[in-house]
Amino acid sequence: MKAAVYYENGGPEVLKYEDVPDPQLHPKGVIIEVQAIAIEGGDTLNRWRGPLMTNPHVVGYQAAGVIVEVGAEVEHLKVGQRVATVNNWGSHAALRSVPARNCWPVPDGFDIKKAAAIPVTFGTAHDCLFEFGRLKAGETVLVQAGASGVGVAAIQLAKRGGASLVLATASSDERLEKLKPLGLDQGINYKTHEVPKEVMRLTDNKGVNVVVDSVGGPTLQGSINSLAYRGRVSMVGAAGREPMVVDVGSMMGGNRSLSGVFLGAEIMTDRVHDNIQALIDDAAKGELDVVIDRVFPLSEAAAAHAYIESRAAVGRVVMVP
Ligand SMILES: NC(=O)c1ccc[n+]([C@@H]2O[C@H](COP(=O)([O-])OP(=O)(O)OC[C@H]3O[C@@H](n4cnc5c(N)ncnc54)[C@H](OP(=O)(O)O)[C@@H]3O)[C@@H](O)[C@H]2O)c1
Fold first, then answer.
1. What would the pLDDT profile of 219-259 be if each residue is shown by its tens digit?
2. What is the whole-number distance in angstroms between the Cα of residue 115 and the centre of ligand 1?
3. Is residue 269 part of a domain?
4. Does residue 215 have its Cβ closer than 6 Å to ligand 1?
């Protein structure tokens, strides 16, 4: 099969489009013919410094397509069915082997490119807000990196969950403007404004109840400093690629809390599995907007990764084999 592979970690240029052996079917899994690959923030981080599980390595968490083979022990999936899938690697390819548990049926008529972009992105944003952030209707939210895949999902889910004020940060006014139709109330350009100071100004000095932080590094301290009394930060990523050093003492006075969130640790549970299916079904009904910024052919994976790293994308970049 054709795949985008790399032999060593590095920038987007390490990605090569090559022939590699087809993946093996597992008795508890399926093989899908990939129709859409949603490039995750984690895929670019893994390419940069993650372990190579094979050499050459096929990176990638999320892809959707049609089942072409079903393992002997799988009863609930069938050949010809469209599914969105997640696995630890292997999305950047024409064929993919995945555990049956990590497949979610895609409703008829729903765009397969949008389906590919839902499980990790929306599932993670939902957990950050509700499972670990304990967001209640009427509370306020700050989404760091609002134009990211996770950010675009978090803004919509926060609004839908009844948040009274949804704030988000981004590196330009233009990026923030694109988030307003999704439910953003006020954007904060962190290049021109100090985030905690702006949050306090926009909340009458109260701060926000929940922050979703997928950037980390120095941004994380800004998230803590933006919290209201008893506020919660869901720390979910390292897009900023800098060490996370926070002053833990800054959380005590306001009874603030910080939770690490890793969807992968619970993706096999019924709770997360069913939640992801509900999010796919809601998006298929038009209740959630899966924002796809650009579509590249898989043969141009290096250009697709470079485009993401240029920070121009809002929402997801998708590839098609
Ligand atoms: N723990 C989990 O379960 C989980 C699940 C999903 C994702 N994640 C993590 O969450 C992070 C974001 O994922 P994503 O898919 O939402 O990412 P993405 O769509 O690629 O977006 C990342 C955004 O981060 C911002 N950013 C800030 N500093 C950056 C830097 N130095 N380099 C590049 N971008 C920077 C950029 O927006 P601005 O230019 O506007 O700042 C960029 O658009 C990743 O670290 C990913 O691994 C974790």
1. 999 999 999 999 999 999 999 999 998 999 999 999 999 99
2. 20
3. no
4. yes
